[in-house]
Design goal:
The chain has 8 helices and 15 strands. By secondary structure, it is α/β, with parallel strands linked by helices. It folds into 2 domains: about 130 residues, Rossmann fold (3-Layer(aba) Sandwich), CATH 3.40.50; about 190 residues, Dihydrodipicolinate Reductase, domain 2, CATH 3.30.360.10. The protein has a 7-stranded mixed β-sheet. Helix 3 runs parallel beside helix 5 and helix 3 packs across helix 8.
Length: about 350
């Protein structure tokens, strides 16, 4: 198989390259694409150098799978050209997620939806993926009637420059220098604020609406009640989420823990004795979602309320890894040789 990475010079592009290199994908199988500004850039890959090319309508000839992570505008402009060239597009932007003709896929949750594609498969929002990795196994085992989720989202979720801005602001603050915010709308260092996406007349921001609408589509449950509150926190990498569930059928924390222990892509970190639970520093750079704080919701005395806390790397499972796993499903086996 031959792969293209559209948006190869971004933070998610870095993760695509790291994952594909670890799987033994040869440099000759890769085509790196970006804007004209980044064309000609050299990127080290498995002992050699790859040259980034400018993305054009002709960039996808001979490509089997095109991973897009260059923003919604680029996806809408170039994904149709990639499909016309014979490639399957796995798009990490929001451009096609809610298109009824485009499957929205988390491979551990709804892998069969991959095969309904018409050339484009959408990668869900990172916060949606992280939440459903924990919620979907519980949903299958006990049913879920309602989800209330609060997110603690890392700066790098807004891109490489946002992560660098957090680092610079932290240095400036500790050194007593003035703080400037150019990438994110507010000071990120030592601060939290509402997610930097538009708020509509409902009062919900775009990130929150994505979590609601995408989760319903992935689970094929338009009646699922979901409310989300999404904020940015001064963490470089890995999102965390506090999740409150109302189950359809009562379950104990031990029963939920057993379901999560058996769930692919999930690792239970729930050490009450040592007060050790999921943290972004432990999730960063990892493929697994860390799930803990598994407990009964005391405000729901019928045994149907469950509380969880989860941390997951939004650049890996929340973006690049999920897309590569979709390619695995397409190939009906893991791509790569190692």
């Amino acid at each position: 198989m031959k792969f293209a990475i559209a948006g190869a010079t971004g933070a998610v592009g870095d993760e695509f390259l790291a994952i594909l290199a670890n799987r033994g994908i040869d440099a000759g199988q890769l085509r790196l694409l970006a804007s004209a500004r980044s064309a000609g850039k050299k990127i080290a890959y498995r002992g050699t150098e790859l040259t980034v090319a400018e993305m054009t309508a002709e960039s996808f000839d001979g490509i089997d799978v095109a991973f897009f992570s260059a923003g919604g505008g680029r996806s809408r402009e170039y994904a149709p050209h990639a499909v016309k060239s014979g490639a399957v597009v796995i798009d990490n932007s929001s451009a096609y997620r809610m298109d009824p003709d485009v499957p929205l896929v988390v491979p551990e949750v709804n892998p069969d939806d991959v095969f309904t594609h018409k050339g484009i498969i959408a990668n869900p929002n990172c916060s949606t993926i992280i939440m459903l990795m924990a919620v979907a196994p519980i949903y299958r085992a006990f049913g879920v009637e309602r989800i209330v989720c609060s997110t603690y989202q890392a700066s790098s979720g807004a891109g490489r420059q946002a992560m660098l801005e957090l680092e610079q602001q932290s240095r400036d603050l500790l050194d007593g220098n003035p703080i400037t915010a150019n990438v994110l709308p507010h000071q990120a260092a030592f601060n939290i604020f509402n997610h930097n996406s538009g708020i509509d007349e409902s009062g919900y921001n775009e990130e929150e609406r994505k979590m609601v609408n995408e989760s319903r589509k992935i689970l094929h449950d338009n009646g699922l009640r979901i409310s989300a509150t999404c904020v940015r926190v001064p963490v470089p990498r890995a999102h965390s989420e506090s999740i409150n569930l109302t189950l359809a059928n009562a379950a104990t924390p031990d029963e939920v823990r057993a379901v999560l222990d058996a769930a692919p892509g999930v690792r239970v970190v729930d050490d009450r004795e040592n007060n050790y639970f999921p943290m972004p520093i432990d999730a960063s750079g990892k493929d697994e979602m860390l799930v803990g704080r598994i407990r009964q919701d005391m405000s729901q005395p019928d045994g149907r309320g469950i509380e969880l806390f989860i941390s997951g790397d939004q650049l890996r499972k929340g973006a690049a890894l999920n897309a590569v796993q979709i390619a695995d499903v397409l190939a009906k086996s893991p791509i790569g040789t190692s």
